[in-house]
Design a protein that fits this description.
The protein has 2 domains: about 110 residues, no CATH class; about 60 residues, no CATH class. About 40% of the residues lie in helices and about 25% in strands. The protein is built from 3 helices and 12 strands. The strands form 5 sheets. A 3-stranded antiparallel sheet has the order 6-7-8, with no helix packed on it. The mean pLDDT is about 85. InterPro entries: Phage_lambda_GpZ (IPR010633). This is Phage tail protein.
Length: about 180
């Protein structure tokens, strides 16, 4: 008899489904951004997944009245110093990228005419001379992530809400029913 079933079964199942889909959206979008972002003067495709994932925070839905999951994303630019240990090399080779001056290498990424400097706030950053800035013509080398993160999360959430929610809701309802009947 359906009337004898627990009142909390359907809300609990919907919360499970929402949290699962939110987690999957985070996973899909961060992987896509990490795989497709281009960084460095040598245009290397891909970033470490850990760097993208640590910019995303998932607040899960709960039984305490908050029935929606929230995803908070830090869409600020990623400083190049975060990519790993940096080494400054003088360029000996002749080529399009390494034709003169020093090259800063961080993992597979190259930054021409860049240098490491400690800022006034005590942090170390990769800096580069910038044309057009009058007073203080150096700037932190950054990888823009705002556009890729926004686009990836919007497309991932829309497609997953359309495809995954009904599936996950079905699984969660089945599981709740199984748990209730096994009591």
């Amino acid at each position: 008899n359906l009337n004898s079933l627990d009142r909390q079964m359907v809300p609990r199942a919907s919360i499970w489904a929402v949290n699962r889909v939110a987690q999957k959206a985070v996973s899909v979008a961060t992987r896509k951004v990490a795989r497709e972002t281009v960084a460095g003067d040598n245009q290397v495709r891909g970033l470490p997944l850990k760097l993208v994932r640590q910019r995303v925070r998932l607040f899960k839905a709960g039984t305490d009245g908050k029935r929606s999951a929230r995803i908070r994303i830090n869409r600020g630019n990623l400083p190049a110093i975060k990519l790993g240990a940096a080494q400054v090399r003088m360029s000996k080779r002749r080529g399009k990228l390494l034709y003169r001056g020093s090259v800063l290498k961080i993992g597979p990424y190259l930054f021409r005419d860049a240098f490491i400097q400690q800022l006034a706030n005590g942090r170390w950053h990769v800096m580069r001379r910038v044309n057009g800035k009058n007073r203080y013509p150096i700037d932190v080398v950054k990888i823009p992530l705002s556009g890729p993160l926004t686009q990836a999360f919007e497309s991932a959430t829309q497609s997953l809400i359309d495809e995954e929610i009904p599936k996950q809701l079905g699984y969660a309802l089945k599981q709740q029913l199984r748990l209730y009947l096994s009591r």
